[in-house]
Design brief:
alpha+beta, D-amino Acid Aminotransferase, Chain A, domain 1
Length: about 675
C-alpha cells in the first residue's frame, strides 16, 4: 500500500488491468497471450475506479480470471494449452477526464493512413461504450488535413461516486450527465488538443512498430493522459509505398515508357543479385510476383512497393546484418508486418563463408563487368540507321546480357555496407563528435571514378574555353535554345580552334547520356540535343573553377581528414584499422559511381532504340507524333511490330495516357509514403 499512497494517493482511485502472458518456460510456444497477433487472447478481467481498500482483492481476481470459463474455452479453440497462461497485473492511477478519447492510428474501417479520433466530454466509458455524444476527427497523416464530424453534445458520462468506508468499498456506476449548454456545439477537442493527440498517437505507433488503438483523456488543467495502447485488431492488410530515395532517379511524373523500363530494370537486376547471393532458383520462382512489382506507379510517380522489397531481401541471409543501414539509406521507417525474420543469425552464420568468398573476388568481378560494358557500348554503333527488327533484336540481346551481368552492381552495395558500417562505427568510437567529418574526408582522393571524370572533363573543357575570351563571351551571351545550337555548331566546326572542337566532340561522345533526370526516357540528353553540353560548362565559366583546382580541393580535404584523424586517434594500430576500412569503403564507392555511370549509358542506349521505334511508328501512321511513344510501355512498342499487341489503336492509348500524365503534372505531388489496401483496386483503396 505504501507505493499506492505515494503514486495514487490514499484517497485516489486505481485501474487494475490484467494482461495474459506465457507460463514459465513457455514463451514462444503454443501458449495464448495478449499480443499483436492476438490482442484479446486472455479474455481476462480488469477493474476501474478501484479504491485503496479493494486493491488486493481486485489483483487476486485478475490472476484468477486467466482460468475463467471464457478464457479456457478461447484458448482451447485456438489450439493453445489452457494451462499455459498466467496473468500480469498492472496498477495505474485512475484519470478522471474532463474529456476522453479513443484514437486509432490507422482508420479501422479500411486501414487507410489516417488517424481517427473519437472524443466526448467526461470519462472514457462515454466513448468506449458509446453512451455519450461523440465528435469524430479524421486526420490524413500524409497531408495533415483534418475532416471533423461534430455532434451536438447533450450527454456525457461522469465518474462514479465511491464510499470510502468499509471493505469492499461501495462503488456506484458511472452516471450519465447533461453537457453544459455552452459546450454542446463547440468541438470537444480544440485544434491544438487534436494535434497533440495525433502527434502522440503517431509516436506511440512508431515506438511499438505497428498501428495502435489508444485510449486517453484530458484533465481539467489541460494535461494529456494516455490510459492504454494496444495493437489495432483486425486491420485490413496494407500495402506501403515509398518514393524516398527513388525520386533522385525518377523525379516528378514519369511517362509510361519510363515506368515500364524502370520496372523491367529492377526485376532484371535484382533477379541477378539474388542468384549471385545464393538464393535458389525455386525460391526466385516462388517470389516472381514480388520481382514483378518492386516498383509501382502512383499518380504518375514511381514508388517502391515495400512488402515486395522486404520479402525479396528477406531471402538473403545477410539482409538482417545490413537492414538498418539499408533502411536508413532508403529513407524508410520500421513498418508493421515487416519484422526481423526468426533464425536469421543462424542462417547468416551458415552462409558467412560464401559471403566472404564473394567479397574476396568482388572487385575482380567489377573490373570484368566494366570491361564487358565498355565493349557492349562501343559495339552499339549507329542505332538510328537500323530498321525495327534490328533495333528490337539489339535491345533484347542487350537486356538479356544485363540480366546476367548487372547483379554485380548490387552485390557491391550489399558487400560494401559491412565495411562502411564498421568504418563509421569505429570512427565514432575512436574519434567522437568529429567522426562524420573524418568519415567523408578519408573517402576523398584515390583513383577517379567515372562520374567524377565526367565532371572533370567538363571542367577541362571550361578551362580551354576560358582561355579564349571570344568563345567564353559567346557561350555566356547565348540565352535561347536556338542560340545554343548555333554556338555549338561554331564550336564543333572549329571556329574557336581545333583543341576546343576536339574536346567538345569527345565530351559529347563519352558523356552525352548525362543529364538531370537521365533515367527518364522523356528527358532529352545531349545525345539528342548536343547544345545541352553548354549548360554543363556555363556554371564553371561563371565561377572560374577549373579541373586542377577541383583536384587540389580534393587533395586538401583528404589531407585535412588525415591530420584530424591523427589528432583525434593517437593509436597507430587503430589508425591503421581505420585506413584499411576507409580504403575498402572507398573502393566500393568508386565501383558504385563507375557502375552508376554505366547505368546512365544503358538507359541512353535504351532511349535511342525506343525513340527511334517511335519515329518508325509515326512514319507508319500508328502514332501522330514520334514522341507519343513515351505514353506506351516497352512491350506495347515491341508488340506493335511483333504482332503481340492486344488491339491496334496505339493513338487512342497514347492519348489516354498523355491526358493522365498531364492531369497528374497539374496536381500537387502526393506524399512520399502512401498506404493502400491489399486486394483492392488502387483508385478506390
Amino acid at each position: 500500500y505504501t507505493m499506492f499512497d505515494e503514486v495514487i494517493g490514499a484517497d485516489g482511485l486505481a485501474a487494475v488491468r490484467a494482461c495474459v502472458v506465457p507460463g514459465p518456460g513457455r514463451a514462444g510456444q503454443n501458449s495464448a497471450e495478449d499480443s499483436a497477433a492476438d490482442p484479446f487472447a486472455g479474455l481476462s478481467d480488469s477493474f476501474l475506479y478501484v479504491p485503496r481498500a479493494d486493491l488486493l482483492r481486485r489483483i487476486v481476481e485478475c490472476w484468477a480470471s486467466a482460468y475463467n470459463p471464457e478464457a479456457v474455452l478461447y484458448r482451447l479453440r485456438r489450439g493453445a494449452d489452457p494451462d499455459a497462461a498466467r496473468v500480469a497485473v498492472g496498477v495505474q492511477q485512475m484519470v478522471l477526464g474532463a474529456s476522453s478519447f479513443v484514437a486509432f492510428t490507422r482508420d479501422p474501417r479500411d486501414g487507410a493512413d489516417r488517424v481517427v479520433v473519437a472524443a466526448a466530454y467526461g470519462i472514457g466509458e462515454g466513448v468506449v461504450q458509446e453512451r455519450a455524444d461523440i465528435d469524430h476527427y479524421f486526420t490524413e497523416r500524409a497531408t495533415g488535413v483534418v475532416r471533423s464530424e461534430i455532434a451536438v453534445k447533450r450527454r456525457m458520462i461522469g465518474a462514479p461516486a465511491v464510499t470510502k468506508s468499509g471493505s469492499p468499498a461501495v462503488l456506484a456506476e458511472p452516471t450519465e450527465r447533461e453537457v453544459p449548454a455552452e459546450s454542446a456545439e463547440p468541438p470537444v477537442l480544440s485544434d491544438s488538443a487534436l494535434a497533440r493527440v495525433v502527434e502522440t498517437g503517431c509516436r506511440i505507433e512508431e515506438h511499438f512498430g505497428r498501428p495502435q488503438d489508444i485510449e486517453g483523456a484530458f484533465t481539467a488543467d489541460g494535461e494529456l493522459w494516455i490510459v492504454q495502447s494496444r495493437p489495432l485488431a483486425d486491420l485490413p492488410e496494407q500495402v506501403v509505398w515509398s518514393n524516398h530515395n527513388i525520386t533522385e532517379s525518377y523525379p516528378g511524373v514519369s511517362c509510361a515508357l519510363t515506368y515500364s523500363l524502370a520496372r523491367d530494370f529492377y526485376k532484371t537486376i535484382f533477379t541477378d543479385l539474388y542468384r549471385r547471393m545464393g538464393v535458389p532458383e525455386a525460391r526466385l520462382r516462388e517470389n516472381a510476383h514480388h520481382l514483378e512489382r518492386m516498383v509501382g506507379l502512383r499518380e504518375g510517380r514511381i514508388y517502391y512497393r515495400l512488402d515486395a522489397w522486404y520479402a525479396l531481401h528477406g531471402l538473403l541471409p545477410e539482409f538482417e546484418f545490413i537492414r538498418g543501414w539499408w533502411e536508413h539509406s532508403m529513407g524508410l521507417r520500421p513498418e508493421p508486418g515487416m519484422d526481423t525474420s526468426p533464425g536469421w543469425r543462424r542462417r547468416a552464420l551458415r552462409t558467412a563463408p560464401g559471403t566472404l568468398r564473394r567479397s574476396t573476388r568482388h572487385f575482380r568481378q567489377v573490373r570484368g563487368f566494366l570491361a564487358w560494358w565498355d565493349r557492349t557500348a562501343a559495339e552499339a554503333g549507329d542505332l538510328e540507321s537500323l530498321d525495327a527488327q534490328a533495333l528490337i533484336a539489339f535491345y533484347r540481346g542487350l537486356w538479356a546480357e544485363v540480366g546476367a551481368q548487372w547483379g554485380v552492381t548490387l552485390t557491391n552495395t550489399v558487400l560494401g555496407i559491412l565495411p562502411a558500417a564498421a568504418y563509421e562505427g569505429l570512427l565514432r568510437r575512436w574519434t567522437g563528435a568529429r567522426h562524420r567529418a573524418i568519415f567523408g574526408a578519408l573517402l576523398a582522393g584515390g583513383p577517379e571514378n567515372r562520374t567524377l571524370a565526367g565532371v572533370r572533363a567538363a571542367l577541362e573543357l571550361s578551362d580551354l574555353i576560358s582561355a579564349l575570351p571570344e568563345a567564353r563571351d559567346r557561350i555566356l551571351s547565348a540565352t535561347t535554345a536556338a542560340e545554343d545550337a548555333a554556338v555549338w555548331r561554331e564550336i564543333v566546326e572549329g571556329e574557336y580552334g581545333p583543341e576546343i572542337a576536339d574536346a567538345a566532340v569527345r565530351q559529347l561522345r563519352v558523356y552525352g547520356d548525362r543529364a538531370v533526370g537521365d533515367l527518364k526516357l522523356e528527358q532529352l540528353t545531349p545525345r539528342q540535343r548536343p547544345a545541352m553540353m553548354l549548360d554543363m560548362v556555363r556554371p564553371h565559366l561563371r565561377q572560374g573553377a577549373g579541373a586542377e583546382a577541383s583536384r587540389a580541393d580534393e587533395r586538401k580535404v583528404r589531407a585535412d581528414g588525415e591530420r584530424e584523424l591523427r589528432e583525434q586517434c593517437r593509436s597507430p594500430l587503430r589508425r591503421a584499422i581505420i585506413h584499411a576500412l576507409a580504403s575498402r569503403t572507398r573502393a566500393h564507392v568508386k565501383a558504385r559511381e563507375d557502375t552508376r555511370f554505366c547505368r546512365t549509358e544503358l538507359f541512353g542506349l535504351s532511349r535511342r532504340v525506343l525513340l527511334r521505334l517511335g519515329v518508325l511508328l509515326a512514319g507508319a501512321g500508328r502514332l501522330d507524333d514520334p514522341r507519343d511513344v513515351l505514353d506506351l510501355t516497352v512491350e506495347e512498342v515491341f508488340g506493335a511490330f511483333d504482332g503481340t499487341l492486344p488491339g491496334s489503336d496505339l493513338r487512342a492509348l497514347a492519348a489516354l495516357r498523355r491526358a493522365d500524365r498531364e492531369r497528374w503534372e497539374a496536381l500537387p505531388a502526393p506524399a512520399p509514403r502512401l498506404v493502400s489496401l491489399a486486394g483492392r483496386p488502387l483508385d478506390v483503396a
